[in-house]
Design goal:
The complex is a heterotrimer of chains A (507), B (332) and C (387).
Chain A: H1 2-30, H2 35-39, H3 45-55, H4 62-74, H5 92-127, H6 132-145, H7 149-169, H8 175-193, H9 197-220, H10 231-249, H11 255-274, H12 284-306, H13 310-335, H14 337-343, H15 363-401, H16 404-411, H17 416-443, H18 448-454, H19 459-468, H20 472-500
Helix pairs in contact in A: 1-20, 5-15, 5-17, 5-19, 6-15, 7-15, 7-18, 8-9, 10-11, 10-13, 11-12, 11-13, 12-13, 15-17, 16-17, 17-20, 18-19, 19-20
Chain B: H1 11-21, H2 31-41, H3 43-62, H4 118-154, H5 156-171, H6 174-185, H7 190-198, H8 203-216, H9 220-227, H10 232-269, H11 280-287, H12 296-323
Helix pairs in contact in B: 2-12, 3-4, 3-12, 4-5, 4-7, 4-8, 4-10, 4-11, 4-12, 5-8, 6-7, 8-10, 9-10, 10-11, 10-12, 11-12
Chain C: E1 51-64, E2 67-80, E3 84-88, H1 95-103, E4 111-118, E5 121-122, H2 128-134, E6 139-142, H3 146-149, H4 156-165, H5 172-185, H6 191-194, H7 204-216, E7 222-226, H8 234-251, E8 254-259, H9 262-268, E9 271-276, E10 279-285, H10 286-291, H11 296-304, H12 342-346, E11 352-353, E12 360-361, H13 366-371, H14 377-385
Parallel strand pairs in C: 3-8, 3-9, 6-7, 7-8
Antiparallel strand pairs in C: 1-2, 1-4, 4-5, 9-10, 10-12, 11-12
Classes of the chains: A mainly alpha (507), B mainly alpha (332), C alpha/beta (387).
């Protein structure tokens, strides 16, 4: 394994080297950074042009300039990064680091959501092949995949931000919306359940009914104006989380796992009240610490109560613990919405930038600010990524479910749930993790279009602005980070593949 | 029992006789025919193909192309008087449902700031975008196939060199290098832009083709051809390549789809098609801020981009199913 | 364990594929129809009295875009303790599908009628949960290709333990101990170390042994082996089959052995069922079926086996099996049968008794075959006449 990594890094170094050369030549020949100055009417432009020429060594021919840059870049290995200056005189490395931070915040969040959603939907459509759900999802995936991001972003800004913020001022749900949403939820429930017609119709009715009840309740209490999770909904949702975690990870044959997760949920509900003071204005560190404690406590409950099903109980309890923690976090966030809305004049969902300038608020309000700014660009990225993951997971899962060992697993008398999760999913996941790693590596380059449209000051915008001039050092700095990320993540993809598939042993 | 007697091979005639008893007949079909049959059965792909052809015809015949006049009354560059803020005159909602009935009017897609007919503008944008997409598709396919075939067949240092080069190209994110190239060449016209983008889009196909060649060159028919003294050229073109047609066709189609999204994205950012030419992406970029007041300027080009990309994607999916039918559809 | 010779010696007139019969009773004694000898199978223990499986009039149909594929049309047989039933047929004869029906592994779209009784209870009328409790525990299956039949990402020990844990709740350690015991039983050396190996680290024969271990780990009453040796080398085949018999006797189980290889059936099965076009066409004691076939298809199959002394061309049965969507009227074998007459082409014959006890055949002209001294001669004459 170690020799594999060393060899890969060695080759990748030269590959990256070649790539930097190509990009440098292209950028340098794409235009002159002094063009804007040359065409301007600035009286002092002669001096500025001279300064710029000196700054960027533009009097040198291309190849020596490249070698110069390379020398500075290689210094990164010894901690002395010198990537030159931008055409405005700023130091590239510091500009890059702030840009990377902004991009990472956006991209990690979006990638995680896209992966979780995409893989789940892909799996479900694979198991319900050729059903109505399958065709709908397939069509939607194709549609999302064919959408131009910049176009849909404008639509989102208008409908999901501006109109939504306006609606929040007096949030009533019109009856037609209730009917429509209830119908959609009912249809999804029907599609998920599968099986006999009567069962599916019951699922439809159940789903629609529950939705109508919830929506009417939300309407009557004007929930959107003053959101929050009350006692009863908290208890109900915690219980549902417990049941869901059990169903997914352990099945209901051994009741003891269900009891353990329910106990975990109960502890979660108690914490919701007990930790009120701690959670008034915490810090990230406190939240992280609480998360760790939550996971440990849940694992402990699982271990103590698990009995013969100990390992499954621990896993299910930890998932429940995580879920309940997320519920508590969300509850606190929602509680802070009215205060936040007042602070930002009702612009809850923002369309530009990563945060409201000069914002002052407590922990939760700051989180809301971040989330409000994140939600639209994230959705834009997720929309397109999700389609890719769905298609890919679906075909991978289909291939796996048609394999002989699935038939053997059924022949052993395993429950369908075990066959799908333990045999099907595990094998289908192998190629998907590779895709995930490569995809993520590419995302580091920043979603250039998304960042441009939403005014996100990340890598993408940095590149866009730099290329317009064109600013060779800035573009090269951008490329160095992006290229290195791609190389590293490609290598990670191969390592993960070797780790997950025992037939591949990396040499 | 002499072995010199010629005996008719029993299989095909007996099979035919047996089939005839059951009221069936055996028909021989070439692989091309089989693929075509399966493709025509794929409803989504067929519908998409029809729509795509209609769109292409509309784009190129309506306002004419390369000097040949079209049947539309306006052209895309003559400014005019702005009527009714340039709102579209198209209406489809029938009168009995409260609308204005169906009529097209003078400017069905509306007018832009300078009074130019927006339908003509959109069509011109579509022409450019479609042309670029197809040229990119062709160029990238040709390069990808050549690189992949040579790497996959010859192995050795040829393969290493070509694959390292491909790796270098892959390391550069697509949008980045396309933007850089677009910045440099975008001003030289759409055709040059298309060729230049094609020069960077081939890496995925090259890897796929190489993979196919790697597995196919070990098959017995290649060994047999070599034993008969066939030259590498012949083996590549007459034996291995025809077997990769499926993969190549599907990839080429998908390349066209991603090309149109890529080009419109580049034009939107400003690195693609430059004025005075126009492209669908450029139109969207120009009028994105007008969305609140004059949404038609924004809707029409976007819808065309989506339609073209979507139909090409569906066609690609249909082709994929046609070339590799591992479906077992069962009427439940 | 002796491995039978595969090249026939020159000095035996009309010698057969597996050499002359040996007195110590090896697995594949010579099949010499003309001598009317009995197949000597002392290693096959006597059949028990208790009936474990009874299949009655099983039909399976698959709806497809091109029509209903009638894969199985009326199969019936019974199986007693320690009995080995061989099911022989070409691809598409329905032999695998009927066994998948017994296991309950057919897709939901399959239309199944008839009864499958396990120890008196009809499996087809059981709930999913009840069927699952039988599967892998009382009725187990061994598949053809052990490389693809095992999950490549889990160790052999994990997969074996899973088979145990899905039916019985016990600590993982106990399940692994049982797995180790089974691996030893099937003859895998160093079983404890092998528990942690992955399927791709085994050889073909060892993988199939592991599959056998997986099938018998819960002490089943019925083992269905679907072409267990087709994917293996000839030399390994004999070992695997021998092991299968050992295991069957150790657990008092019955075996349904599905294969297209007549030699395997000849040496292993108490009774043989021949299937064609989804229907059983002959059922009886293996000796009866092999030496006194009463259905032309069986005769044709036996006649097509090359013998060591032959110098002419091979003698296949001419023609091809029919499509299961559009079956011809009458006997589905009639287009290829040298004895076919008008009644054969209009009325499909049912399985009916012949001259021997418990030997049934589906042919209108079984008596012609019983009258002939060498029933396979019909096919030889036929193909010779075509020259």
């Amino acid at each position: 394994m170690a020799s594999f990594i060393v060899r890969r890094l060695f080759i990748s170094f030269f590959v990256l080297l070649g790539a930097t050369f190509i990009v440098y030549i292209l950028v340098s020949s794409a235009g002159d950074p002094r063009t804007a100055l040359l065409e301007s009417n600035d009286p002092g432009k002669a001096n500025k042009i001279a300064a710029l020429t000196r700054n960027l060594s533009l009097d040198m021919p291309v190849i020596p300039r490249y070698l110069n840059w390379l020398k500075g870049a290689l210094g990164c290995f010894i901690g002395n990064c010198d990537l030159g200056n931008t055409s405005t005189g700023a130091v590239v490395t510091s500009q890059l680091s702030s840009a990377i931070g902004a991009t990472l915040r956006l991209v990690v969040f979006a990638a995680v959501i896209a992966i979780v959603l995409g893989v789940t939907v892909g799996m479900i459509t694979a198991l319900r092949q050729y059903s109505g759900l399958d065709y709908t999802v397939t069509f939607l995936s194709f549609l999302f995949f064919s959408l131009p991001v910049f176009w849909i972003a404008v639509l989102m800004k208008q409908f999901l931000a501006i109109r939504f913020n306006d609606w929040l001022k007096s949030p009533t749900i019109p009856p037609w919306a209730t009917v429509l949403i209830a119908a959609l939820v009912g249809l999804s429930a029907m599609a998920l359940v599968g099986g006999a017609r009567s069962r599916r119709l019951a699922a439809f009715a159940g789903g629609a009914l529950v939705t109508v009840v919830i929506l009417v309740y939300l309407n009557l209490t004007q929930w959107f104006a003053e959101p929050g999770i009350g006692v009863v909904p908290m208890i109900v949702m915690s219980a549902v989380t417990a049941v869901g975690a059990t169903a997914l990870l352990a099945g209901f044959r051994g009741r003891i796992v269900l009891y353990a997760t329910l106990v975990t949920a109960a502890v979660g509900v108690i914490c919701y009240f007990a930790l009120d003071s701690v959670l008034a204005n915490p810090t990230n560190l406190i939240i992280f610490g609480l998360l760790v404690v939550a996971l440990l406590v849940s694992a402990g409950i699982g271990a103590a109560m698990g009995g013969l099903y100990r390992s499954q109980a621990i896993k299910a309890c930890m998932l429940t613990g995580f879920g309940c923690g997320a519920l508590i976090f969300t509850a606190n966030l929602l509680d802070a919405v009215p205060a936040y809305s007042a602070e930002v004049n009702g612009v809850v969902i923002a369309t530009i930038g990563a945060s409201t300038p000069n914002f002052q608020g407590n922990y939760w309000e700051t989180w809301l600010d971040t989330l409000g700014h994140l939600i639209l660009p994230t959705m834009a990225i997720v929309l397109i990524s999700f389609a890719q993951y769905t298609r890919y997971t679906r075909s991978s899962m289909l291939e796996v479910m048609n394999a002989d060992y699935i038939r053997t697993a059924r022949a052993k008398g395993l429950t369908e749930r075990t066959v799908v999760v333990r045999h099907g999913f595990r094998n289908a996941l192998i190629p998907i993790t590779t895709v995930m790693a490569i995809d993520f590596g590419g995302l580091i380059g920043g979603a250039i279009i998304t960042e441009t449209v939403f005014g996100w000051s990340g890598m993408g915008k940095f590149f866009n602005d730099a290329l317009k001039i064109p600013d060779p050092n800035a573009v090269m700095g951008f490329f160095l980070v992006t290229g290195a990320a791609i190389v590293v993540f490609n290598m990670l993809a191969d390592i993960t593949y070797g780790f997950l598939d025992p037939r591949i042993r990396l040499t | 029992m002499s072995t010199d007697e010629k005996i008719e091979p029993p299989s095909i005639n007996d099979a035919k006789a047996t089939a005839a008893i059951q009221g069936m007949s055996i028909v021989a079909r070439t692989q091309g025919q089989l693929v075509r049959r399966r493709f025509f059965r794929h409803r989504a792909a067929m519908i998409s193909l029809t729509i795509l052809i209609l769109v292409i015809l509309l784009a190129y015949t309506s306002i004419g192309f390369a000097g040949i006049p079209g049947w539309w009354i306006w052209d895309y560059y003559t400014p005019g008087l702005v009527v009714n803020r340039g709102a579209p005159t198209l209406s489809v909602w029938p009168e009995f449902l409260g609308g204005n009935g169906f009529h097209i009017g003078l400017h069905p897609f509306g007018q832009d700031d300078l009074g130019r007919d927006y339908f003509a503008l959109t069509m011109r944008g579509a022409q450019i975008s479609i042309m670029i997409a197809f040229v990119v598709g062709i160029v990238s396919t040709v390069i990808g196939v050549i690189v992949g075939a040579l790497a996959g067949y010859y192995r050795g240092w040829v393969e290493s060199a070509l694959m390292r080069f491909t790796d270098v190209m892959i390391t550069i994110p697509l949008l980045v290098i396309a933007a850089v190239l677009g910045q440099k060449f975008g001003g030289s016209g759409p055709l040059v832009l298309a060729i230049v983008i094609g020069l960077v889009l081939w890496t995925g196909l090259a890897r796929l083709v190489r993979g196919e060649f790697l597995s196919l060159r070990e098959k017995e028919f290649v060994e047999a051809a070599r034993a008969l003294g066939a030259k590498p050229n012949r083996i590549i073109f007459r034996h291995i390549l025809p077997n990769t047609v499926g993969v190549i066709t599907v990839s080429a189609t998908l390349a066209v789809a991603s090309a149109i999204l890529l080009e419109t994205a580049l034009s939107y950012l400003g690195f693609g098609v430059r004025p005075p030419d126009t492209s669908l992406g450029l139109l969207v970029s120009n009028y994105q801020n007008a969305f609140a007041t004059r949404p038609w300027l924004f809707w029409w080009p976007g819808l065309f981009i989506i339609t073209i990309a979507l139909t090409v994607n569906f066609i690609g999916d249909g082709l994929r199913d046609a070339f590799d039918p591992r479906q077992n559809r069962v009427r439940a | 364990m002796t491995v039978p010779q595969t090249t026939p010696p020159d000095d035996v007139p009309g010698g057969s594929l597996y050499g002359p019969a040996r007195e110590d009773g090896d697995i594949f004694p010579a099949v010499q129809p003309s001598q009317g000898a009995e197949l000597f199978k002392p290693h096959l223990s006597s059949v028990g009295d208790v009936e474990v499986l009874r299949v009655e009039d099983l039909t399976v149909g698959f709806p497809t875009e091109d029509g209903l594929v009638r894969a199985v049309r009326g199969v019936s047989y019974t199986l007693h303790e320690r009995e080995v039933l061989g099911i022989v047929g070409e691809s598409g004869s329905g032999k695998s599908v009927s066994s998948m029906a017994v296991m309950g592994l057919l897709p939901k779209s399959a239309r199944i009628t008839g009864t499958i009784s396990f120890r008196g209870q009809n499996i087809l009328s059981m709930s999913q949960k009840q069927q699952r409790s039988l599967r892998g525990r009382k009725i187990a299956m061994i598949f053809q290709d052990p490389m693809t039949a095992m999950n490549p990402v889990y160790s052999i020990g994990d997969q074996l333990a899973e088979a145990v844990l899905s039916h019985e709740v016990m600590p993982k350690k106990a399940a692994m101990a049982r797995a180790e015991e089974m691996l030893g039983l099937v003859g895998i050396p160093q079983p404890k170390a092998r528990l942690r190996s992955y399927p791709h680290e085994f050889s073909g024969g060892m993988r199939q042994r592991a599959m056998i271990a997986m099938a018998v780990i819960n002490n089943p009453d019925v083992i269905i082996a679907d072409e267990p040796t087709t994917a293996l080398d000839v030399t390994v085949q004999a070992q695997i089959l021998e092991k299968l018999i050992e295991v069957k006797d150790a657990f008092n189980a019955a075996i349904v052995l599905i294969t297209h290889d007549l030699g395997v059936v000849a040496g292993m099965a108490h009774r043989t069922l021949v299937m064609y076009a989804g229907r059983p066409v002959e059922l009886g004691n293996t000796d009866d079926v092999f030496y006194r076939p009463r259905m032309p298809y069986t005769a044709g199959l036996l006649g097509s086996i090359p013998s060591g002394g032959d110098t002419g061309r091979l003698r296949p049965i001419t023609g091809a099996p029919p499509s299961l969507i559009n079956l011809p009227e009458g006997c589905p074998f009639s287009p290829r049968c040298p004895l076919a007459t008008d009644i054969c082409r209009t009325v499909e014959p049912q399985l009916s008794s012949t001259d021997a006890p418990e030997h049934t055949a589906a042919c209108h002209h079984w008596d012609t075959l019983s009258a002939a001294e060498d029933p396979t001669a019909f096919f030889r004459t036929e193909s010779e006449a075509r020259r």
